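Reproducibility note. Readers wishing to regenerate the assembly model reported in the main text can use the exact inputs given here. Chain order matters: entities are listed in the order in which they were concatenated for prediction.
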Amino acid sequence: MTGVGANGFYIEPLNPAHDREGFHCGESALDTYLQRQARQDISRNLARVYVLTDDGKTVKGFYSLSAAAIDPANLPLPLARKLPHYALPATLLGRMAIDTRMQGCNLGNLILMSALHMAWEGSRVIGAWAVIVDTKTNARDFYLRHDFQPFPNHPDHLFLTMAHYARLLSGLSIAE
Amino acid sequence: MNAGKDPSMATNPVAPPTLEPTCFTNPLSDRTWSLTAADAEAVIASWDDTRKPSEGLKDAYRQYMEMVRPA
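Running the prediction on these inputs yields the following structure tokens for the assembly.
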């Protein structure tokens, strides 16, 4: 799905050859997720986890995607009427991190764009309104620079619509 | 007296460069999401949104295509 680029980086689904223990992003919960939980989530079809690597072993960064549903319950009727009667479908960018040794190499751009592209491809098969992310506060500006918008009442909850991503692709003459 | 102290130096005139974060998501981000009225307004507004992608997003996509995806 994603090939080797000019710098030798590629993104592939997490597999047993990846050195998960060697990955450290500075947030133990994210490290532990990759090391202990990610493969379980994959086997249970709860998430798909993708790894940025340049040798098929070293994990430079990773992200996870899951189907998500946003509950529109308890809204005032005039608003509720404008929304679907079911939960709003979305793709959750649940985990995203890069190794501390790669900090400053702009690898965040690469894995974010991979995640958006993967989510967009998925949304062409199964509808999804947007990619949503619960950002760490210090990473919020990173997402805003990439056109994410905040939910007004949840400033660290951000979204980027699939329609906006499609406009990016069509503007660059990439979309089919 | 603040002899010798330049008030303009009260704040650092040259901010250190902001390093890219390494952790981009809340580690416990799998909680149920629900919409408040203001959130719902933002969702509804997004359906009519015609903003053009920013240069930041375009640059990131080009970088992605160059460094990860084959030409």
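We highlight two features of this model. Chain B touches chain A through 50 residues (CB under 8 Å). Residues 15 and 57 of chain B are 25 Å apart (CA to CA).
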